[in-house]
Prior knowledge:
The protein is of the alpha/beta class. The protein is 33% helix and 18% strand. The protein has helices at residues 30-43, 65-73, 89-103, 117-121, 143-157, 161-175, 189-193, 222-228, 258-269, 286-295, 304-307, 326-330, 337-349; strands at residues 12-23, 54-57, 79-81, 109-115, 197-199, 202-203, 212-221, 233-242, 278-281, 362-369, 374-381. The strands form two sheets. The protein has a nine-stranded mixed β-sheet with strand order 3-2-4-7-1-8-11-10-9, with helices on both faces. Strands 5-6 form a two-stranded antiparallel sheet. The relative contact order is 0.20.
Amino acid sequence: MSMTERFPRGKTAIVASATYGMGEAPGQTSLDLAVHASVRALSSIGLTPQNVDGLFIALPDDYLSGLSFTEYLGICPRLTDNNRTGGSSFLTHAIHAALALDAGLCDVALIAYGSNQRTASGKLVSSLRPSPYEAPYRLARPIGGYALAASRYQAQYGLQKEQLGAVALAARQWAQRNPEAFLRDPLSMDDYLASRMVADPFSVRDCCLVTDGAAAVVMVRADRARDLATRPAYLLGGAAAAWHKDITNMPDLTVTAASVSGPRAMAQAGVKPADFDVVELYDAFTLNTILFLEDLGFCAKGEGAAFVEGGRIAPGGSLPVNTNGGGLSCVHPGMYGLFTMVEAAQQLAGGLGERQVDNAQLALAHGNGGELSSQATLVLGSAATL
Length: 386
């Protein structure tokens, strides 16, 4: 962390979080879904949209969604942030919200997202557009970019298909403990290996879901958090980093900017990888989990594939990862980043039934945008970590 970097450690907290329309929500727009999740989160702590004076949102089909959302709710926020860095947008929103709250620019910050991608189109819709240098090769977006990274990792570190499968199986095992998860059917390694190839080395079970869904979180200053929530999730650190947009401009296909955002966020929080009780990663593809575990410091570069073997990140393993089922088995409505924050905050709040991690005090949420392009990391902690 830079000597000049000052993050308001523990000065703000997530006091409410909610999801809505997980899986399929026919007849509703992305904006409808985001509003429902927001009202659900706010009402759970006795607030209404009129209490919101800091709005942070990025809908997939509306580049002026901050204005649309304001109009829909009939509110007049003092601060509106529509920053878009793909699936990592919402973690950058949390960083901005923490700074704004600490500075007194707003008192109640709402971060929201919704997408009807599944019922509207039935397929993964990407806003990525190839550069003139890539276009002649007709690379499928975004899966083609991630497949290129997986192929490079495979060549450099000897990645085995079964190791990618370990990530998929762990996600499914967590999803089976989550009533909201979209895919809860059993998934064996034989099932995984037999699944349809999409973009070598990825089969369909290596790829995130295409679902509808919405999420929202409410943030306030710490001095108010204790009045609104029994177990707030305090934001101890947050950092973002990016090196490129298109996969062909990625400096090293096996190293992401999480190697920058993670250490910065942990330095702000004063913690290290071994301290975390639960980890929520943006698993758009099975490779993501392996890369991020390495880049965030949970294991050395090139060791992530072996790290996920033997159920280590599955229920009962030593490091609970993607405890809701992740983008691979729970939900993935175009952009998944906000759901990592919701799950991390809810794990700290407790009461998640079969998937609850015992005595969870410190949680990491990590978002990814574009083609392994934008990375953002949050460290959340219980009151015991302040």
